[in-house]
Specification:
A: mainly alpha, MetI-like fold, 77% helix, B: mainly alpha, 2 domains
Chain lengths: 307, 289
């Protein structure tokens, strides 16, 4: 009885709040209506282009039929939980993305440091050049790797000329090394652009004080600059890692002997259209991505997020 | 890792022994910068230059200048219409433009709501609005099952691109709003008699026009060659530009692929030049003034 009244009570409360938003009478209620109206277009898109498809994909993973969502079967989830192949794919994806992230963020720190702390000529041009690859889709990044490391690649041919070995033996574009270069190629620009925002906010007084008190440049970096940019580095690692997990076009072209989650998703569909399995992998992937992002961003200020 | 921290002026009081870190730190950091720049830029320049070469059997392309590969990918002269970039490029440009307009409609209001007001769970909303919720390939798979008839249609592509690229719009516009006192701006307009909708449309939006313009260019450029989502949902007719690129990269001769990709490079260079004109230093959401 008491639960029923509390339920009716909260429903009435919700209805009256909706009424207040629809026909506000105070300035506070009008502000709430504005917020609701301003957010509405985005939420409509997010619901119909984001949440509904994701829920449908979850249903797809439990479907008994391959071609449409009919009947129920947990076979795909059982395979996913028990088949070690999938565990290895998850492991491969994670370590490869993590390694590429660490290298990219480290390189990004060096680039940002040089741009912000040394007065270099042509800084604007350097920033434009470093940001250029952000616009490139993964397949074009793969071509860039082929230009450097493929059979006709610049580095391959140069080494072949000097060592006298066959360029075909030397080409590394389609090995795991080439794939790693492809990942780093996509991620260094993103890492650099995120870190630039952090560097711009550093209080340079503390650095100057450290220098005038006799600290050398490395000590100043380690004890003064690094603690200031640490939140930015953490944010960069989280965002760059997310980008690394989503890389697909580069892997599709280069292959590289490494099956990552995105490539496996494509294979599940292109070989035998195993849609239930693809749905299950997709759900795990998205759940991991969202969980990881919210957990990670708990430790950093979202104002640092830039792309 | 960067190991150097050095102001622009030379060591002031250090006489005698110069610390190792000063001696090596700066050259190492500059070295990393130059090496990264080389790795990032050389393949782009090489690709563009090769697209004008007659042959590429050695380390460097030879036989300049020929426009044959460009003619081929642009479908000029004797080459068939079916294999060239123009139909796909036209289609993708139209789709990207529609996605961009949709992005302005959904992105600017939520960016304003998040910058101007405090409300329940606004940090969650912020995270969802500024981070890509789903990777393109997974959204593509989900679209195929949810909208089997329309996933690869023009409408499906527009909606998909819009959702995938919306964070760039929201971030750029927010970056623009951050430098303004929104509350004061809004209250001044209201106290002069403007209604709230009028304030938003004729005062707030014009103030953010640089950010909106920058966000539009970024979302447009990224959508024009979006691959992962397109690859999953496209039906092939008309063939989107990124599929044309994919077909060239995986099958065509090296120099023809170079010409196909160079078309997109020209688009990106144009985008960066316009972005610099509206206050972004490059292809990023960060607005600098």
């Amino acid at each position: 009885m008491s639960t029923r009244t509390s339920v009716t009570g909260s429903i009435q409360q919700a209805i009256s709040r909706l009424q207040a938003v629809a026909s506000p009478s105070t300035e506070r209620e009008r502000e709430q209506r504005r917020i609701a109206l301003l957010s509405l277009p985005f939420f409509l898109l997010a619901i119909f282009a984001g949440f509904v498809p994701l829920i449908t994909m979850g249903r797809m993973s439990l479907s008994a039929d391959r071609l449409s969502n009919e009947g129920w079967s947990t076979e795909a989830w059982q395979t996913l939980a028990t088949d070690p192949t999938y565990w290895w794919i998850g492991f491969n994806t994670l370590w490869f993305a993590a390694a590429a992230t660490l290298v990219s963020v480290a390189v990004g720190v060096a680039i940002t440091h040089a741009l912000e702390k040394y007065s270099l000529p042509g800084e604007r041009l350097i920033v434009a050049a470093v940001s250029f690859p952000i616009a490139l889709p993964g397949i074009v990044v793969a071509f860039m790797v082929i230009v450097l490391l493929g059979r006709q690649g610049l580095l391959t041919q140069t080494v072949a000329v000097f060592s006298g070995r066959s360029a075909i033996d030397l080409a590394t574009a389609t090995t795991i090394g080439g794939l790693f270069l492809g990942y780093v190629y996509s991620l260094v620009p993103r890492a650099t652009m995120i870190l630039r925002g952090t560097y711009a906010e550093i209080n340079t007084d503390a650095e100057e004080a450290a220098r005038s008190l006799g600290a050398n440049s490395f000590e100043t970096f380690r004890n003064v600059t690094l603690p200031e940019i640490r939140p930015g580095i953490v944010a960069a690692c989280i965002l760059v890692f997310r980008s690394a997990l989503a890389i697909f076009g580069t892997v599709l072209i280069l292959q590289g002997g490494l099956v990552v989650v995105t490539l496996r998703l494509d294979r599940e569909l292109s070989v035998g259209f195993n849609s239930q399995m693809a749905g299950a992998i997709g759900i795990v992937y998205v759940a991991f991505l969202i969980g990881f992002t919210f957990l990670g961003l708990k430790f950093v200020d979202t104002n640092r997020v830039e792309v | 890792m960067a190991t150097d921290q050095s102001p622009s002026e030379p060591e002031p009081f250090e006489t005698g022994r110069i610390p190792l870190s000063t001696l090596f730190g700066r050259p190492v950091v500059i070295g990393v910068l130059l090496l990264s720049l080389a790795v990032l830029v050389v393949p782009i320049v090489m690709t563009f230059v090769s697209s004008f070469a007659e042959s590429a059997t050695g380390a460097l392309p030879t036989g300049f200048v020929t426009l044959e590969h460009w003619r081929k990918v642009l479908g000029l002269g004797d080459y068939g219409v079916r294999t060239n970039a123009l139909p796909g490029l036209t289609f993708s440009v139209a789709i990207a433009t529609a996605g961009m307009v949709l992005n302005v409609i959904i992105g600017v209001p939520i960016a304003y709501a998040l910058s101007r007001y405090d409300f329940y769970a606004d940090d969650w909303v912020n995270t969802f609005a500024i981070l890509p919720l789903v990777p393109g390939i997974i959204l593509g798979i989900a679209f195929l099952r949810t909208y089997p008839e329309n996933a690869g249609s023009a409408f499906g592509l527009i909606v998909g691109y819009c959702l995938l690229k919306s964070p760039y719009m929201v971030l750029t516009v927010q970056s623009s709003f951050q430098s303004m006192d929104l509350q004061q701006l809004e209250e001044s307009a209201r106290s002069l008699g403007a209604s709230w909708p009028r304030t938003f449309l004729t005062v707030i939006i014009p103030h953010a026009k640089q950010g909106i313009l920058a966000g539009s260019i970024i979302t447009w450029t990224l959508a024009a060659a979006e691959f992962n989502f397109t690859y999953m949902v496209h039906t092939g007719d008309p063939e989107p530009f990124s599929m044309f690129l994919f077909r060239n990269i995986s099958n065509a001769p090296y120099l023809q692929s170079a010409a196909a990709i160079s078309i997109y490079f020209l688009i990106v260079v144009a985008a960066i030049l316009v972005l610099q004109g509206v206050g972004n230093s490059g292809f990023t959401t960060v607005q600098e003034r």
